Amino acid sequence: MDGFTSPGLALTRRPSPEMERGILTHVPRSSVDPVLAMRQHVIYQEALASAGWRVVEVDPAPGHPDSVFVEDTVVVCGDLAVLTRPGAEERRGEVEGVEASVRSLGLRVARVEAPGTLDGGDVLQVGETVYVGVGGRTNAEGADQLARLLKPFGREVKRVEFKAVLHLKSAVTALPDGSLIGLPDLVDATALPPIRRAPEEPGAHVLPLGGRDILVSAAAHATIHELTAEHWRVLPVDVSEFEKMEGCVTCLSVLVPDRDREGRGNGSGT
Fold first, then answer.
1. What per-residue confidence (pLDDT) applies to 263?
2. Under DSSP, is residue 83 helix (H, G, I), strand (E, B) or coil?
3. Spatial separation of the C-alpha atoms in residues 209 and 52, rounded to whole Å
């Protein structure tokens, strides 16, 4: 397309054929179809590409059933990639392959060190504010380390407690205008701006893709109807196999905005 500039890169990682052996915390275990999961993942990547993102696949991580949830391994802010230290020890081996990918993109690299733990799914960037969920996979030390690393970017980190969900972004996410949508009963709402209540659980998870484009689970029928009526360009994707493993649309990618365009958008981040 003449004159079109990509919003940036989207890091993804193919689902493990052993994904159903992944860690579950708040939902009962059910059978996962690995063939369907792969098909859904390809369609998810195609949806990212349709919004202009250039999809970059991180190398597979054999022996790590949860590795498709690549968001948990790295937090990107500007030209810095903060490699996490996942709260589940079994997932820490996923970080190595992600480090190789972000270095190949020319990003500077820092890392969360012991005794800190940090999962990317607990990190919600909204403009200059970074909300970090603590009490689950992420601890206070991990949040404090992230705060120090992001301070040179003018970011303010605020801790948020939550309950009965795996990550902060399992309960609340941000629309492109910076407003929050989610399940306010599952978080300490006093630590956050007003939260628009999602009509159903999958509707708590939206992934802003730039402009008015947002990615939403196809299972969030009422949320899709509401957001479409408000003239958001909603891209529904079926992620049912990942939802069985406590995943959602946000945790299947890490968006790395083009640094020449960053800051000229709508103020929300991933």
1. 45
2. strand
3. 9
The domain 8-161+241-257 is classified under which CATH number: 3.30.365.10, 3.75.10.10, 1.10.287.3510, 3.40.350.10? Answer: 3.75.10.10
In which residue ranges of the chain is pLDDT below 50?
Answer: 1-4, 263-270
pTM over 0.70: yes
Q: In this predicted structure, what is the pLDDT of residue 6?
A: 81
The Cα–Cα gap between 229 and 91 comes to 40
pLDDT of residue 259: 76
User: Do residues 186 and 205 make contact, with C-beta atoms less than 8 angstroms apart?
Assistant: no
The residue assigned the tokens 């958008």 is: 265
At 19-38, the pLDDT tens digits run 999 999 999 999 999 999 99
CA atoms within 13 A on the CB side of 147: 14
Domain locations in the chain as residue ranges: 8-161+241-257
Q: What's the confidence (pLDDT) of residue 261? A: 52
**Which tokens in the block code for residue 135?**
């009490």
The three-point CA angle 223-118-206 to 5° equals 10
Q: How far is CA 5 from CA 188, 212, 252, in A?
A: 39, 16, 23
Two tokens at 115?
């005794």
**What residue type is assigned to position 107 of the chain?**
L
Task: Answer yes or no: are the C-beta atoms of 230 and 175 closer than 8 Å.
Answer: no
Task: Give the whole-angstrom CA distance, residue 164 versus residue 162.
Answer: 7
DSSP assignment letter at 26: S
As annotated, the active-site residues are 167, 251
Residue 260: per-residue pLDDT: 66
